[in-house]
Amino acid sequence: MTLNNKWISALLPVVLLVAGVTGCSKFLDRKPLGVGTEDDIVQGGVEGKVFSLYGELRKDGMSGFPTLGFKNIRSDDAAKGSTTGDAGFITPIFDQYQYDAAQGQATVYWDDHYYFITLCNAVIHDVDSMKLTDQASQQNRAEATFLRALAYFDLVRDFGDVPKIDFKIYKPEDANIAKSTAAQIYTLIDADLDFAIANLPPEWPAKFIGRATKGAADGLKAKTLLYRKNWAGALAKAEDVIGSHRYELISPYYRLFKEEGENSLESLFEIQMYVNVNGSVNLGNNHNQVQGVRGSGDWDLGWGFNVPTQALVDFYEDSDPRKDATILYSGQSDGGSSTGGYGRTLPPFPPLAQPYWNKKVYTDPVRRSKITIFSGDPHFSRWLNIGILRYADVLLMAAEAANELGGAANTTKALGYLEEVRFRARNGNNAILPKVTTTDQAELREAIYKERRAELAMEGERFYDLVRWDRALTVLGPLGYQARSKFYPIPQSAIDKSGGKLVQNPDYN
């Protein structure tokens, strides 16, 4: 099976120069928060601005450290990790649901998402205002609408009602508007994704692997419909992805989380990261770095945040290979090549700060040993892509939607899609992960729920799944979750800047 090559991180400076952009530092530099204007279209054209959007996805609030609290640590699968004293505020806020509207990470998360949205709006505005109807411009616009939908999907899941800024910002005060309802945000998301589906190509030339495709837009649309319990719509969009025959599950499972698995046939969309062999070109962020094993010497691999919980360790079915591809154990072998390890044994807990670590961000020690430019952090990993949507998720969405629709034909579909995921997971060992055969809707629902947890653990799905299944209070309640905890309070800094137009979520007044 051939795996595609990543493109954006390594190739982008060359692409931008060819396109005539005067400086590719736009792709790398963080622009001031709250300033949503872009240089006019004379600087490199619409496509240059679109390329810059992919770089902006690496901002902290889009995919770095702040995202781990929202997307992982709030679930029962992950805990703050690290040491007791390091970033101790995370434990009460995200592990115990004592949300804080003034907390800095939440502010960065909000600000970076809205800044990203303003950049998407600028691209859309340029295409519309100049009446650019050629295919390339419409594709560029579709990339911007897909990415805007992705950002708004984060915001509506995390905050509920939020401001709908779907216009170009010329001065900061233009963004000081009241909240729209979640339903209105979803209407925008639907329109954005419909446009993307109609105008994005099924695939890009090899040199552009990593750009949004029709399959990515179909998959994201399926997920947004699933969250609204639009089962028929979700199944139809998931089956558009399945029926395209452009995606497949790669085996064994652990390959997904290695460099060899990046942009594979299983990938619908991922954030491109890149660090060259000696680290002199660094187009990564701290997402993987902050999750690395926290130790000393050869085991100083990161800050040790976002670690698997005992509940996750205990959850897996007997001999499920995904367990050892997901969890790295202190004091034990990393499992060797059969589970994505490298034949190394970790120090025990203690002295390591935690008993378990996220193996999905565990990198090759030979590769790490060659990185020399990160002062004080010689072994930290910043180069693994960040998966956003993959084919196994689509199959499980299709299974869930089909089962909820009910009827013999849909039950058969649900069982078939579920079995595709379990078949890959068992990797030829028919003595494990027996085929699910029940036709009882409730029993099959439970099987699909369990499969999502096993398949997607530590990938930012579990908390949101529990919320949309109306199970968060039952599962997370003993950890401190309350009914209001499904949404985070609007950051206080955003409320203050709005001059009274933006009001706090009602459960936090």
Task: Describe the structure in your own words.
With 509 residues, this protein is mainly alpha-helical. It is built from 20 helices and 8 strands. The strands form 4 sheets. It has a two-stranded antiparallel sheet. The longest helix has 26 residues, at 104-129. Mean pLDDT is 90; it is low at 1-44.
Brief synopsis:
With 509 residues, the chain is mostly helical. The chain is built from 20 helices and 8 strands. The strands form 4 sheets. A two-stranded antiparallel ribbon has the order 1-5.
**Strand segment count:** 8
Strand content: 5-15%
Main β-sheet, spatial strand arrangement: 1-5
Overall pLDDT metric: 90
Question: Low-confidence stretches at least 5 residues in length (pLDDT < 50)?
Answer: 1-44
Largest sheet: 2 strands, antiparallel
Query: Percent range for helical residues?
Result: 40-55%
Q: What's the shape?
A: globular
Spatial extent as radius of gyration? 22 Å
- Provide the succession of SSEs: HHHHHEHHHHHHEEEEHHEEHEHHHHHH
Give the CA-CA distance, first to last residue.
55 Å
Number of helices: 20
Give the class from helix and strand content and strand pairing. mainly alpha
